[in-house]
Amino acid sequence: MTLLAPGARLVDAETGAVLDGPALIIEVERRADELAALPDGVLFARTGVDLSGVLTYVAAVQAGRAVALFDPALDVPVLARLIERFRPSAVLDAPAAEPPPGYRAAGGKWLRLDPDGVRPHGDLAVLLPTSGSTGNPKLVRLSRKAILTNAHAIADVLGIDEREVAPTTLPLHYAYGLSVLNSHLVSGATVVVEREGILGRGFWDTVAAHDCTSVAGVPYHYEMLRRLRFDPAANPGVHTLTQAGGRMRPELIAEFDKLMRSAGGRMFVMYGQTEAAPRMAIMPSERLAEKIGSVGPALPGGQFAIRRPDGGDTTHPKITGEIVYRGPNVMMGYASTAEELALGDECGGVLPTGDLGYLDEEGFLFVTGRLKRIGKVFGNRISLDDLEAATRATGLGIDIVAAVAADDKVVLFAEGAEADTCKSASHALSDRLHLHASGFDVRPIDTIPLLASGKIDYQALEDQV
């Protein structure tokens, strides 16, 4: 299997440039040859939503070079710590800053001076960070097989073929955004590389100009589109909306499902994690109205089970526990050091998701909560513990803080803080993590509740959200 199927097209919305057919193949192979010539080691790619970033990623996969994708807005000190841990062969599209020790700047890259490096495992294709830029993310190791089988499964369920045209609405270093790109390229479809995103002033003009047929969004996007009174009749070419990146309000799902059906279109609710490359389930659009709240059955080739408290797995309906997914798209494992990039498959196709949920009588999955201390801000997975530490590090005098997940944002309770201080903390977190301040709801509280053990009573705080 290859990432570029015959007919695949890339369109740069900003310049109007089109790459397809032999021209696309030649450009990808040219870049692949350049990457293949670099010394052993993983490649770090700061991938913006632009044509060059897309081509760099596709070329790395084509060349068989393991590539880690990062937000180009990642703070240089954070990037430097990652470089120290993983010793990449090169940092592509490097920052305009002094390279770290052991690297030299050349041609827009930081190149490792030592020609000897850890050769990643031969199956390894893509690495994505687990927790944004909070400081010390692990990397999810995804094989070529996982990436490609997941892309084909998504395309199969959504009915993606060479007639489809999808704009980029999400970053490539975010698994959902990457999966939109992958599933269209393997289907010989068109991807319009659009920089502004769904809420950008020119986005819908681009959608109309290039006859886009689908739009992908996270819950926050749909909240904003509702406020803007999205009307599918104003965009008649768009017949498919997809949603992933966290649980969306059932009433909002129902509203957009009704809107799309009234215009002859489709709404798909999906479920996934970076560790599953990323898609695990897609709710069939024709069943959405009758099963609001479900994310659907497992993708073709995958299956769900529920882990009971005794550690056993079951597929019996209406039993709530940790969701366990099995499939060919499960990650190889995590990596925290360069040496771990050389490891093989440590998961065996089994992924305990850390999410809570249950199956119904038809095997449709309902996600009810999270088992682990992970939240999502506009679809980005964030460590709640790291977020608490980041709040304490703002210099605003917040010493006692507790973070709880609340759908597509995080609520942080700051003990003894004034309202103005909480507002400043929200903006400080926004600046550090490059996400909108509304995703960090910092609230004053007189006293944070504690358990008898002296630990924070997070359940009591969740009850206040």
TrEMBL record:
<dbReference type="InterPro" id="IPR045851">
    <property type="entry name" value="AMP-bd_C_sf"/>
</dbReference>
<feature type="domain" description="AMP-dependent synthetase/ligase">
    <location>
        <begin position="58"/>
        <end position="334"/>
    </location>
</feature>
<dbReference type="Pfam" id="PF00501">
    <property type="entry name" value="AMP-binding"/>
</dbReference>
<dbReference type="InterPro" id="IPR000873">
    <property type="entry name" value="AMP-dep_synth/lig_dom"/>
</dbReference>
<dbReference type="GO" id="GO:0016874">
    <property type="term" value="F:ligase activity"/>
</dbReference>
<dbReference type="InterPro" id="IPR042099">
    <property type="entry name" value="ANL_N_sf"/>
</dbReference>
<dbReference type="InterPro" id="IPR020845">
    <property type="entry name" value="AMP-binding_CS"/>
</dbReference>
<keyword id="KW-0436">Ligase</keyword>
<protein>
    <submittedName>
        <fullName>AMP-dependent acyl-CoA synthetase/AMP-acid ligases II</fullName>
    </submittedName>
</protein>
